[in-house]
Design a protein that fits this description.
By secondary structure, this protein is an alpha+beta fold. It contains four helices and seven strands, in the order ααααβββββββ. It has a domain of about 90 residues: Sandwich (Immunoglobulin-like). The longest helix has 21 residues. The relative contact order is 0.13.
Length: about 180
């Protein structure tokens, strides 16, 4: 073959060039997956997650979770009465009070046993207590000093000390008799 003939012939393509040319002729793949399917597929792929917690943050997290768990049990502390007991709900309006207790014949007029709560600090104190069924005399002790009959009680009885003071009267029905 002469030099003139060599110049007129096209050089042979390398293997890599021929493969790339064939790939270029193939039709482009069509993705029929929508964006939602791609997102789901992305979340479905396994990934390695490394979580590094410092000891202080771990302790704070554990304490916080423990406190939340304890508070959730305390909030659902509705008393459960027995067959010959009932639930007495005490409510009193004492604005500005820092503590309110209930004392009565059911606890031998002893202070410190039944404390009422004012969770939202609006002056309305409340509490629920399991008491034996029957009639009970009681009073509120406000701020540890002032003994006050329940202004919402339907009945009152003389306290027996002759000073004209009255005790509130509460009738507790057994829980079994409650509708």
């Amino acid at each position: 073959m002469s030099a003139a003939e060599l110049l007129q012939t096209t050089p042979r393509l390398s293997v890599a060039t021929r493969i790339m040319t064939e790939i270029g002729r193939l039709p482009a793949p069509v993705h029929s997956d929508g964006p939602m399917r791609r997102i789901i597929r992305w979340f479905g792929r396994p990934r390695a997650v490394t979580l590094r917690l410092r000891p202080a943050w771990t302790l704070a997290l554990a304490v916080g979770l423990g406190a939340m768990l304890l508070l959730s049990f305390q909030q659902d502390s509705t008393p459960t009465p027995g067959a010959s007991e009932g639930i007495a709900n005490f409510i009193g309006h004492f604005p500005g009070a820092t503590s309110v207790e209930v004392v009565g014949s059911f606890n031998n007029w002893s202070r410190g046993a039944i404390h009422l709560n004012d969770d939202d600090h609006d002056g309305i104190w409340h509490g629920a207590v399991v008491l034996p069924a029957g009639a009970h005399e009681y009073m509120f002790v406000v701020d540890g000093e002032r003994w006050v009959p329940d202004p919402l009680a339907g009945r009152y009885v003389d306290d027996g000390f002759g000073a004209g003071q009255e005790n509130s009267l509460l009738f507790v029905r057994p829980a079994a008799a409650q509708p």
